[in-house]
Amino acid sequence: MVRAAEVATTMAATLVVVGMALSIAPVASAIDYTERDLASEESLWALYERWCAHYNMARDHGEKTRRFDLFKENARRIYEHNHQGNATYTLGLNRFSDMTDEEFNRSPYGGCLTAPRMSDDEIEELHHHHHQQEDDGSFNLTHGSGGGKLGAPPAVDWRGRAVTRVKDQGPTCGSCWAFSAIAAVEGINAIRTRNLVPLSEQQLVDCDKLNHGCNGGLMTTAFSFVVRNRGVVPEGAYPYMGREGRCKHVMAPPVTIYGYQRVPRFDANALMNAVAAQPVSVAIEASSFEFRHYQGGVFNGNCGGRLGHAATAVGYGADAGGPFWIVKNSWGPGWGEGGYVRISRNTPVRQGVCGILTENSYPVKR
């Protein structure tokens, strides 16, 4: 049967560790605030008004009063974390800062991995049948080898070579699975062709009927669709809309892959080898207060309790905060370190921090 998530993680050896001072925002779109902003109800209201304007949040009076109470507690909690002095990561105010945990987890951001309409075995059989028709079985879909290079280097960062800009799935579409899969396909295509082309998540959302569009999906199922569909078109030919629409056939040169492989579970060395070779789709836990307010540094905090989100591992490295995976998210460049999170590789639990060693996969291209 299908497991409830698939994979990808990413790195940033060159990223500067964000200082522990409460200059909360290492990226331009973040909201700075100081202890003075927390000193009174009036100053907190002024901070909330500034936050609403910054993120263009429309709130009617009744809702605004209720959400202000959430916001001020979140602002204080973030401030306290950043001043405790021993954390390897900072938190910051962002567009999720007047939401409850329950609201976030019900939102498309909080959960976008869903089992497909067919089982893994049925999808694989369909996939094999396609290859037998297309090329007489000269390439077979394989699982579990881990791929990649032996003896992975100490640090890898595919950004600038095989990673497109940070994108935003938006608040109305649970399409993280499509963004994760597309980032991995963009990566291997750039490595094989030396041409970095942004590709269309919307084509997967509209046309991959084994996944569930804006209601979730899995990356391996998306990779199988790209094979059966004889590719995925550039983003410019089929732009992202943030909602599910009718599948369109557009005339544009597609980018193809030939299959996918899974990374062995709970094996950090296998994931390093895979990421050393190419960007990898990863399933992660991302529903906690700490994760959604992550602003910078090496994250080793509470991630949430389920593999409900998908991202892309694009590198790994180490700095004063310890060893980390570099992970590209799909919450826009205003979240985290310009849209990225560095997840700690130091952990005693076999699933890794945020479950990052649990369900990972990557596309194969000749």
Q: How would you describe this structure to a colleague?
A:
The protein is built from nine helices and nine strands. It has 366 residues and is an alpha+beta fold. The protein has two domains: 35-86, no CATH class; 120-124 and 154-364, Cysteine proteinases (Cathepsin B, Chain A, Alpha-Beta Complex). Strands 1, 2, 3, 4, 5, 6, 7, 8 and 9 form a nine-stranded mixed sheet that branches. α4 (120-135) packs parallel to α7 (219-228) and α5 (176-193) crosses α6 (201-207). The model is unreliable at 1-28 and 132-149 (pLDDT under 50). The chain starts with 40 loop residues before the first helix and ends with a strand. One of its GO terms (biological process) is proteolysis involved in protein catabolic process.
What's a quick, concise take on this entry?
The chain has 366 residues and is α+β, with helices and mostly antiparallel strands. The chain has helices spanning 41-54, 61-82, 101-106, 120-135, 176-193, 201-207, 219-228, 268-277, 289-292; strands spanning 89-91, 156-157, 259-263, 280-284, 294-299, 309-319, 322-328, 340-344, 360-364.
Span between N and C termini? 29 Å
Regarding quaternary structure, what we see is: single chain
Strand tally = 9
* Percent helix: 25-40%
CATH topology name of the largest domain, in short, is Cathepsin B, Chain A
The CATH architecture category of the largest domain equals: Alpha-Beta Complex
Q: State the major sheet.
A: 9 strands, mixed
Mean pLDDT: 86
Order of helices and strands: HHEHHEHHHEHEHEEEEE
The top-level CATH class of the largest domain is Alpha Beta
**Class inferred from helices and paired strands:** alpha+beta
Return Rg in Å.
Answer: 20 Å
Number of helices: 9
